[in-house]
Design a protein that fits this description.
Number of strands: 10
Order of helices and strands: HHEHEHEHEHEEEHEHEHEHHH
Largest sheet: 3 strands, parallel
Radius of gyration: 21 Å
Structural class: alpha/beta
Low-confidence stretches: 1-10, 307-313
Mean pLDDT: 91
Helix content: 25-40%
Strand content: 5-15%
Bound molecules: zinc ion
Shape: elongated
Length: 313
């Protein structure tokens, strides 16, 4: 008998696509964050998969009161409905601590007492942050100070293929240095939290802004050391203003218009290289989203925003 046909196809089940959108609640949703929300949503839905939302409020002092609620409301108005409960990083510190302890037990992390000012004069990496020179590798320089915990990295070249940006290569030791997992003030860092949470949520594809491309090798190393799977990556072009700065709360990007989502959704689709018909911009959000799910093509997304168009503010 055809036993293979009647057996549950577990391999197929495991490969159900699961994407996510993980905003920091530092202010309302703007055009730049809509790009990441829409791109990750469409890639998941186009594959018949699930789309999760995670509020990255691990950095509590930067969190704006009510911002998470406002972001979730804006997503709903824009027709971006998520699956399952929203995960809040502020409620997950026990999981980050457990991951950190396993790295400490394996001798892979060490205390560092260097201050930001002490490191400021050294060379900087692609993300503009100082490359850590390994000062405290053999022991903290100022043991009386509160300490951060850093991951010990190597200089082995790390390569991965990004679905939009192509092959990306980084040598962590010389380009980033040992990076922080928990800060001296006790806060867990983005790099550790995102790895623990992507695995906990069973995320299979990470679609996010290209400003996070250079964080990916750090996250891949953590995945390997923690025995967690590595998802597929696609880094979307980042919307910039007329000065060439990334659209963000810090650069004063205006919040999305919640009463009339059409024009911003249409513009976001164009920015992502899709070809929505002009009249679609006047449709309600659900109609635009339905068109976008049916027509979404990740291969049409250009790696450089200039190849789509530049946002003007
Ligand atoms: Zn140090």
């Amino acid at each position: 008998m055809a036993a293979a046909c009647s057996a549950p196809d577990r391999a197929l089940e495991r490969r159900v696509a699961r994407g996510r959108f993980a905003p920091s609640p530092t202010g309302p949703l703007h055009f730049g964050s809509l790009i990441a929300a829409l791109g990750s949503f469409l890639e998941a839905r186009r594959r018949g998969g699930e789309w999760l939302v995670r509020i990255e409020d691990v950095d509590a002092p930067r969190t704006a009161l009510g911002a998470a609620t406002a972001i979730l409301r804006a997503l709903e108005r824009y027709g971006l409905h998520w699956d399952g409960p929203v995960l809040y990083q502020s409620q997950r510190t026990a999981h980050y601590q457990a991951a950190l302890e396993s790295l400490l037990d394996a001798g892979l992390a060490y205390p560092c007492t260097c201050t930001r000012r002490e490191l400021a004069s050294g060379p900087r990496g692609r993300d503009g942050a100082p490359i850590y020179p390994g000062t405290c590798r053999a022991g903290p320089r100022q043991p009386q100070r509160p300490h951060a915990l850093r991951l010990r990295v190597t200089d082995a070249p790390l390569t991965f293929r990004d679905a939009i940006q192509g092959e990306y290569r980084q040598r962590l030791e010389r380009e980033v240095g040992d990076f922080v997992l928990r800060r001296a003030d006790g806060l867990f860092t983005y790099q550790l939290a995102v790895v623990v949470d992507d695995a906990a949520q069973g995320v299979t594809q990470v679609v996010r802004g290209a400003d996070l491309l250079d964080s990916t090798p750090r996250q891949m190393v953590l995945q390997r050391l923690l025995g967690l799977p590595t998802p597929d990556y696609a880094h979307l072009p980042v919307a910039v203003d007329s000065r060439g700065d990334k659209l963000s709360k810090q650069t004063g990007a205006p919040p999305l218009d919640e009463r009339n989502p059409g024009p911003a959704l249409w513009a976001a689709l164009r920015f992502l290289g899709q070809q929505p018909p002009p009249e679609l911009a006047r449709e309600p959000a659900p109609a635009i989203i339905a068109w976008a799910v049916a027509h979404w093509d990740l291969a049409a997304v250009a790696p450089d925003p200039a190849e789509n168009f530049r946002m003007i503010d």
